[in-house]
């Protein structure tokens, strides 16, 4: 009996070790995929978890004009799943299309259909949020620059009046 129990523990340990090694390989593959996709622009990440069916992780890159430049996806159930390039979404070419165009289509879908594309929607919304945040920052900087310019102009005017008054 103790020999069988020992074999069971050894088998369970071997499975856990294989799972850990596979997880480390996937993490390394994920980091490499992020670096590859990032070469093509800003990166948005999304995932759809699968219980009974396959889930996926998607990385979408786009340029400063919000145009999709690259996309990679990892789908599958096992530790052997790897990232691969994909060029189509919703039955048409992704590369060269605006993220806003795809988001508009997704937002018009019913919730059940949106669930199927959750990872893509998350990645596109992450990019949209990043671009909106950058636009807000630029607007704040422009506003503070205008305020600084007004302050400097007022300060110069006040200083010149003080000089004239002293003479």
Describe the structure.
- It is built from four helices and six strands; from the N terminus they run H-E-E-E-E-E-E-H-H-H.
- By secondary structure, the protein is α+β, with helices and mostly antiparallel strands.
- 61% of the residues lie in helices and 17% in strands.
- It has one domain.
- It is elongated and about 75 Å long.
- The chain has helices spanning 2-38, 99-108, 111-116, 118-166; strands at residues 42-48, 56-62, 68-75, 83-85, 88-89, 92-93.
- The strands form two sheets. A four-stranded antiparallel sheet has the order 1-2-3-4.
- Helix 2 (99-108) crosses helix 4.
- The termini are far apart.
Secondary-structure blueprint:
Layout (H helix, E strand, L loop, with lengths): L1 H37 L3 E7 L7 E7 L5 E8 L7 E3 L2 E2 L2 E2 L5 H10 L2 H6 L1 H49 L1
Antiparallel strand pairs: 1-2, 2-3, 3-4, 5-6
Task: Spell out the key features of this protein.
two-stranded antiparallel sheet, about 15% strand, alpha+beta, 4-stranded antiparallel sheet
The helix content, as a percent range, equals 55-70%
Helix-strand sequence:
HEEEEEEHHH
Determine the structural class based on helices, strands and strand pairing. alpha+beta
Biggest sheet details? 4 strands, antiparallel
Shape: elongated
User: How many domains in all?
Assistant: 1
Strand arrangement within the widest β-sheet reads: 1-2-3-4
Q: What integer is the average pLDDT?
A: 82
Instruction: Give the helix tally.
Output: 4
Query: What is the rounded distance between the termini?
Result: 108 Å
Radius of gyration: 27 Å
Number of strands: 6
Which consecutive residue ranges, at least 5 long each, have pLDDT under 50? Answer: none
């Amino acid at each position: 009996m103790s020999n069988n129990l020992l074999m069971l523990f050894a088998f369970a340990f071997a499975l856990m070790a294989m799972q850990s090694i596979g997880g480390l390989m996937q993490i390394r593959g994920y980091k490499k995929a992020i670096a590859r996709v990032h070469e093509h622009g800003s990166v948005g990440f999304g995932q759809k978890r699968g219980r009974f069916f396959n889930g996926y992780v998607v990385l979408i890159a786009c340029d400063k004009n919000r145009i999709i430049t690259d996309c990679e996806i990892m789908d599958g159930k096992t530790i052997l799943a790897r990232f691969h390039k994909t060029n189509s979404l919703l039955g048409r070419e992704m590369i060269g299309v605006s993220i806003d165009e795809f988001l508009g289509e997704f937002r018009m879908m019913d919730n059940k259909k949106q669930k199927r594309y959750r990872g893509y929607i998350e990645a596109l919304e992450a990019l949209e949020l990043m671009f909106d945040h950058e636009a807000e920052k630029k607007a704040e900087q422009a506003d503070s620059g205008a305020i600084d310019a007004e302050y400097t102009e007022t300060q110069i005017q006040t200083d010149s009046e003080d000089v004239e008054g002293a003479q």
